[in-house]
Amino acid sequence: MWDERYKSEVYAYGTEPNDFLIEVCAKLPRGDVLCLAEGEGRNAVWLASQGFAVTAVDSSGVGLEKANKLANERGVKINTVKADLADFEIGVQRWDVIVSIFCHLPPALRRDVHQRCVSGLRAGGMMLLEAYTPDQLNYNTGGPPKVEMMMDAQSLDMELNGLEFLHLEECVRDLHEGEFHNGTGSIVQALAIKPKQ
Fold it and tell me: Residues in domain Methyltransferase (predicted)?
């Protein structure tokens, strides 16, 4: 599905970074960033332009090819890894920041990935997440068509156990991120930190 979506010359979700990422970027610790399900690279490339060392992982080689093309056009470098998140080794205390922007997975895999993210963050590291909530099905402006693949504040509070939330909020906002995230959407935003021992 994703290779098919990304095969066009047009960037499916645009080439500009996510609004929430821009809003909280100044709070993120400098260092190594992992972008989950990064697709065509809009967030990874922008973070690289802000001085972060960025690794973008996605299951679509077509998307990552476009991510590298965008990085070249913007004069930055990113590391891309083609992998399914079910198999990708996030590592232990490896990352200063993990970014999950509209990374919608089946529930069991999502819970597993989120716990691996907690382990994968260094002490003082942060996880940034934005995703659609179940109410998004009423808007039809993007996201998966299945309620079980959506997230909300309560589920994230449980799934990211081990992190302290600096921001955790559900809201309705306008998104203008390419063709596939366009219009009013119901979303959850989270910024959480791994406590220093």
Answer: 33-125
Q: Are 188 and 174 in contact (CB under 8 A)?
A: no
The CA-based dihedral angle spanning residues 115, 117, 121, 126, taken in that order and rounded to the nearest 10 degrees:
-110
DSSP assignment string, 30-83:
SSEEEEET-TT-HHHHHHHHTT-EEEEEES-HHHHHHHHHHHHHHT---EEEE-
Count each helix (H run) and each strand (E run) in the chain, helices first: 6, 7
Strand, helix or coil at 92?
Answer: coil
Please write the tens of the pLDDT for every residue from 115-136: 999 999 999 999 999 999 999 9
CB 131 within 8 A of CB 103: yes
Element (H, E) at 155: helix 153-159
Calculate Rg over the CA atoms of the chain. 15
Percent of the chain residues topping a pLDDT of 90: 84
Six-digit token string for 186: 């119901």
Nearest-angstrom CA–CA distance, 147 and 162: 26
- CATH code (residue 116): 3.40.50.150
Count how many domains the chain has.
Answer: 1
User: What is Dmax (Cα atoms) for the chain?
Assistant: 47
**Nearest 5°: phi and psi at 99?**
-115, 125
Contact status, residue 35 vs residue 42, Cβ threshold 8 Å: no
Q: Which domain holds residue 120?
A: 2-193
